[in-house]
Write a structure and sequence with these properties.
The structure is a homodimer. Chain A is α+β, with helices and mostly antiparallel strands. The first copy, chain A, has helices at 23-32, 112-121, 123-149, 152-167, 182-189, 193-205, 221-227; strands at residues 34-38, 43-45, 53-59, 61-69, 72-80, 84-85, 98-101, 105-111, 209-212, 215-218. The first copy, chain A, folds into 2 domains: 7-140, Jelly Rolls (Sandwich), CATH 2.60.120.10; 150-227, Winged helix-like DNA-binding domain superfamily/Winged helix DNA-binding domain (Arc Repressor Mutant, subunit A, Orthogonal Bundle). In chain A, helix 4 packs across helix 6. The structure holds a DNA duplex.
Chain lengths: 234, 234
DNA sequence: TCCTAAACCTGCATTTTCGCATGTTTATTA
DNA sequence: TAATAAACATGCGAAAATGCAGGTTTAGGA
């Protein structure tokens, strides 16, 4: 457990709440927020649970995942520090998705009422939130297209680019800053763990990646991007 | 061509702009908006074109469609009167999607500057816009899951439910209020026109639908919904 | 260090989806 | 009304994706 971090001393300058929410309102949120610590693998919220407010990730990593259909799951989003969480549920009563920590994570929780007031009273924050949603919507709808039209090779390449963009890699070792199982990658790509392994073998023999134990090393990101062609997200 | 319709006399009470934008600001928008008439099949905007503002559908129907990948397209959204159009592009410079009239349509256009000002000055409108985005994002991300996990039968059933919810049907004839080609339906379902035809044959022999010429008659919507199980959007 | 469970890899048979080809029906226009 | 083009239906072989089985590697705890 760590000590409580107030917004005005938080070093997370890119935190979403700070994009347009200042002074009095930031202080209000800071003093009224809850701060919660989640161990890797534990749920922040589950589908069907009541929605009381919204989360901001102070530290760590989180996956938003749908419940299964035909025995499969789908990872809808990866989020890291500074990012907002639970924003799909605004004005709704119950969550539609599950949210699971993929690293030990510290999360700030703000109640609905206070959050709505902040939106109404900080127009700059509201408009930034609108821009953020527009961007997320664009990405999600592109992903609909990708899921509908890409073949497995492209989907798996896309999953790696997505993970790379969400969490980045260590510039020295060229390893991803996050450790995901083949199943997690499959749940992002929209396929099965076996297919991920097969594509990894292909990519390895093409010298696009290398494998060290279970870690993946990126040898040629440009070429991985070429696999998905013009079809990059954003 | 029809005459210009001002917002205060427009009978479209469910128009998005009227959800939180009143008095002075509604008048401002009404007097500064452009009104444009599009014939069925013509483009409202195309991918790559510069974004100057946002649209509201006064009358008609529109499909938002992505450019092709492997020779396929994907219909991302169907929209009818009262709905907003072009909102994915907020703060961006160029459109990411194409927008095509699927009936003769009358559309109101509001410039970016004015729209942003309205958002900043009508907090109720801004928050309704936020709620709308949250809802659209939820839908889009569910569709990612559906595209990834459903089989063809489920996808085609889902496409019909989607069209039905977007445009409704004539309660007498049980025909959809919109005429779409097999290819359009395939572009919603995320498959090919041949597969749509095959599923239609199946649904027909199961007495879920009937076919009269090229029109589709809904005999049993409940059962169509059952095909997609708990997995209804919204 | 050893042991055990979980994760991973790969071959192969099965299932699903695709896409062409061909013939038919429907809508449109002269 | 006839001619023509577009849209639709359907069989079938090809291609892609899936899922199981069996063996291997790795991580983590005793």
């Amino acid at each position: 457990m760590k000590n409580r971090i107030e917004c005005n001393v938080c070093t997370n300058e890119n935190c979403f709440i700070k994009q347009g929410c200042f002074g009095e309102w930031l202080n209000k949120i800071s003093s009224q927020k809850n701060q919660l610590w989640y161990k890797k693998g534990s749920y922040i919220f589950r589908e069907g649970e009541p929605i009381y407010g919204i989360y901001f990730i102070q530290h760590g990593g989180i996956k938003v995942v749908t419940t299964s259909l035909h025995g499969r799951e789908q990872i809808v989003r990866l989020a890291k520090e500074g990012q907002i969480l639970g924003h799909r549920g605004l004005r709704k009563t119950y969550y539609y998705f599950n949210s699971v920590a993929i690293m030990d994570s510290l999360v700030c929780f703000v109640e609905n009422e206070l959050f709505y007031e902040a939106c109404m009273n900080c127009p700059e924050f509201a408009i930034n939130l609108i821009f953020f949603y527009a961007s997320e919507l664009r990405r999600a709808e592109l992903r609909v297209k990708y899921q509908a039209q890409m073949n497995i090779r492209e989907k798996v390449a896309m999953a790696f680019i997505y993970i790379y963009e969400a969490f980045g890699m260590n510039p020295e070792t060229k390893m991803l800053n996050i450790s995901l199982t083949r199943q997690d990658i499959a749940d992002i790509a929209g396929t099965t763990a076996e297919q991920v392994t097969r594509q990894l073998s292909n990519f390895e023999s093409e010298k696009l990646i290398a494998r060290n134990k279970r870690e993946i090393i990126f040898l040629n990101i440009k070429e991985l991007e070429n696999i998905i062609g013009d079809y990059k997200i954003e």
